[in-house]
Amino acid sequence: MRLIIVDDRHYFRFVALSEILFDFFEDDEEVEVLDIPEARRRIRFGSQCYDEILIIGTLTFCRLQYLLKFLVRNGYRVPIKILLFSDIFGLKILNGPLLLSKNCALLSASITQDELLSIIKGDTPVFHNRSKGTVAFTRNDRHILERWSHMINGEPDSAAMTKNDYQISRRLKLRTRINNELSLYLLWRFSRNLSELEGV
């Protein structure tokens, strides 16, 4: 039995996404589409047992952390996959899915319905090919991102960059195909916290 949990801070997308998935899986008895409160109720009272869980939407890290810990506390050690929309990091468009970790992928906020359903069904594998589209931050990247954090936090004296720093910054932007420095910084923080959380 597969559980799809929908949670999106954008109300209209939450409603539209829920309706699309409800309609698409309506005749599939092996898939349930629920929001977080209903999923928690079913899991807590043991009314259903799931062997695969997919979380989709724009969850903050704290909300995602709460949900994953809730699942672990209730004995769920099954595969848990996460699909996030890119506008949670201020990105409207991505040139294809990005893997933030082995179980979490970032999708373009402008993804089409057909593309999204293809990923959810598994026809377009985003978690299996880690050599392409994986976000991996190197030590040099982390150095630059820490400089950016000083700039973002209003500490210009600690944010001065050298010529080499700018070259590293350019390579990072080319590799991720993301030019927005704030978005890259938020992405880095999220993926760093996520890698720690996945050890829960």
Polypeptide structure, described:
The chain has seven helices and six strands; from the N terminus they run βαβαβαβββαααα. Helix 5 packs across helix 6. It folds into two domains: 2-134, Rossmann fold (3-Layer(aba) Sandwich); 139-190, no CATH class. The protein has helices at residues 11-24, 36-44, 61-73, 113-121, 139-152, 163-176, 181-197; strands spanning 2-8, 31-35, 52-58, 80-85, 98-101, 104-107. It is elongated and about 60 Å long. Helices cover 45% and strands 16% of the residues. The longest helix is centred in the last third of the chain and has 17 residues, at 181-197. A six-stranded mixed sheet has the order 2-1-3-4-6-5. With 200 residues, it is an alpha/beta fold. The mean pLDDT is 86. Helix 1 (11-24) links the parallel strand 1 and strand 2 (31-35).
